[in-house]
Design brief:
This protein is α/β, with parallel strands linked by helices. The chain has 3 domains: 85 residues, Archaeosine Trna-guanine Transglycosylase, Chain: A, domain 4 (Roll), CATH 2.30.130; 123 residues, Rossmann fold; 227 residues. The chain has 14 helices and 22 strands. Strands 18-19-17-16-20-21-22 form a 7-stranded parallel β-sheet, with helices on both faces. The protein is globular, with a radius of gyration of 24 Å. It starts with 13 loop residues before the first helix and ends in a 14-residue tail after the last helix.
């Protein structure tokens, strides 16, 4: 997307320039930046159009006549085909536009090999760890192996609040419904996600709390953890002790005592791993919030840091853009599998691959999955793809990584944390309050949302429509991320919202 403003004509007012945008010169549609009234002509930079109906903010208006069956271009790419003739000025949405997506496809590698200049890494005060990257938080986590001990874990977290203070920045339990009655890949995924969280750098201490008769017990999870600092990890199998609460509190006390000696020290931003996610998107998400995140991603990876783009079903329709940016053909092949495997997963349950966008997305102006995907993938910036990860696989390569996970907000954000993200950037045009196991930065696509939901939103990318440049907002977002990494609390943290959701695909016994 071009960030240079269109030249203003002598008869074009400042108000006109902020009402309608054609994202690329190829586009057949423009997006309303404010509600437009039927019959009122509006400039869009290269011309003028008169809406034939009221156009809500974030929705699309046809810039020329579009024939039935003709591909409709937005972001410079097709977002579907017209299901009827659409006159210039017509409202282009679900009533006259349908997806062109289908099942698994064959792809050809056409490498673009984008260049990326190096940048001197910034620093932030973080917590060094014996193994792996530094933490941006020093929290004590209580992780149940199975849903049967969820209530015990939550009771322990409540009683352990007395340990919070100084270097112990919080005590949290992460209940979930799994760990037993699972088969095959589901059981493996649960074990690996829990193992990865046990060694997450944001956890200065972890109690792994088991029942004793579950499939994914302590003995199955610990071997998957790899190297870990034994001084920061304890386990308890509740069936093996008389008073599980008393025994667990003693272990939590030991962990908290060890954590009191921790201190923040300067750490390089090259050690940061940041997850990229969007949810509750609207028609402005791909114009403001996601491109702003894309600038941030390029900045961080230029410093040697890492970003992770996920929600694979929301790459459908924009996947070739990512494939062409793969650093080599082996990564291209992995990306092809990433996309087609998810399509085959949908088809194995006799579900259409295009059962998206959500009702909230459509209300905000997103019509098809291609429309959503072309906006969604802008979070990846313009840098090369350096890694492609399976679900619950940890990041190893610095730079931009693609991660296999669904679009569901809680599941995808948890997957990002399990793959090593110390924080998640979450763009939204509709607003959402949740938080995943790590700080979850909410980035509004429009200023009215940021002003209305100040208790949810951390960063207003809608300011791009009020004179800010994309580059300046990206730099500001980088400074904000460094502040969060250094201890500044996000809205979800202030609200006490920390959720865990594991991807389930198969049979429950």
């Amino acid at each position: 997307m071009s960030t240079d403003p269109e030249p203003r004509r002598s008869d074009q007012t400042e108000d006109d320039m902020n009402r309608l945008v054609q994202i690329t010169p190829k586009d057949m549609v423009a997006v309303a930046l404010q509600p437009l009234r039927a019959g009122e002509s509006v400039d869009y930079g290269a011309g003028r159009v008169t809406p034939l109906a009221d156009i809500p903010m974030g929705h699309k208006v046809a810039l020329r006549d579009i024939r039935k069956g003709e591909p409709v271009i937005k972001y410079g790419f097709p977002i579907g085909a017209a299901t009827e003739d659409i006159p210039a000025g017509g409202h282009v949405h679900t009533q006259n536009l349908h997806t062109l997506l289908s099942g698994a496809l064959e792809y050809e590698y056409r490498p673009s090999r984008p260049a990326q200049a190096e940048r001197t890494p910034a620093t932030f005060p973080g917590y060094p760890r014996k193994y792996g990257r530094p933490g941006i938080r020093n929290e004590l986590w209580i992780i149940p192996t199975v849903g049967c001990v969820n209530d015990i874990a939550q009771a322990l977290a409540r009683d352990a609040q007395r340990f919070v203070g100084g270097s112990v920045e919080g005590v949290y339990a992460f209940p979930h419904p799994y760990g037993c009655s699972q088969m095959g890949g589901d059981q493996d995924n649960t074990r690996q996600v829990l193992a990865n969280l046990c060694t997450h750098p944001n956890a200065g201490g972890v109690l792994l709390l088991g029942l004793g008769c579950e499939n994914s017990g302590v003995d199955q999870i610990v071997p998957r953890m790899g190297e870990y600092d034994a001084s920061r990890f304890r386990t308890l199998v509740t069936q093996q002790v008389e008073d599980e609460h008393e025994a667990a509190m003693a272990l939590i006390g030991e962990l908290a005592e060890n954590m009191k000696r921790d201190a923040r020290v300067p750490c390089s931003a090259s050690e940061l791993v940041v997850g990229l996610k969007c949810g509750g998107s609207d028609g402005l998400s791909g114009i403001t919030a996601n491109p702003t995140i894309g600038v941030f991603s390029d900045l961080l990876t230029a410093m040697g840091g890492s970003t992770i783009l996920t929600e694979v079903p929301e790459m459908f329709g924009a996947e070739t853009i990512l494939m062409d940016r793969c650093e080599d053909e082996a990564l291209f092949d992995k990306t092809v599998h990433l996309i087609n495997d998810f399509k085959e997963y949908f088809e194995s349950y006799h579900m259409p691959v295009y059962e998206n966008p959500s009702p909230g997305n459509k209300a905000g102006g997103i019509t098809t999955l291609e429309d959503k995907a072309l906006g969604c993938t802008q979070k990846s910036g313009s840098g090369p793809v350096k890694g492609v990860l399976k679900y619950a696989e940890k990041v190893e390569r610095r730079g931009l990584n693609l991660l296999s996970a669904p679009g569901n907000d809680l599941v995808a954000s948890t997957a990002l944390a399990a793959s090593g993200a110390q924080l998640v950037l979450f763009s939204t045009g509709r607003g959402t309050p949740f938080g995943c196991p790590v700080p979850t930065v909410k980035i509004a696509s429009n200023t009215p949302l940021a002003e209305k939901k100040r208790n949810w939103i951390d960063f207003d990318a809608g300011r791009l429509l009020s004179g800010r440049t994309l580059e300046s907002l990206g730099e500001e977002l980088m400074e904000y991320v460094l502040a969060v990494a250094g201890g500044s609390r996000t809205r979800n943290e202030e609200n006490g919202f920390h959720d865990l959701a594991i991807f389930k695909q198969g049979v429950t016994l």
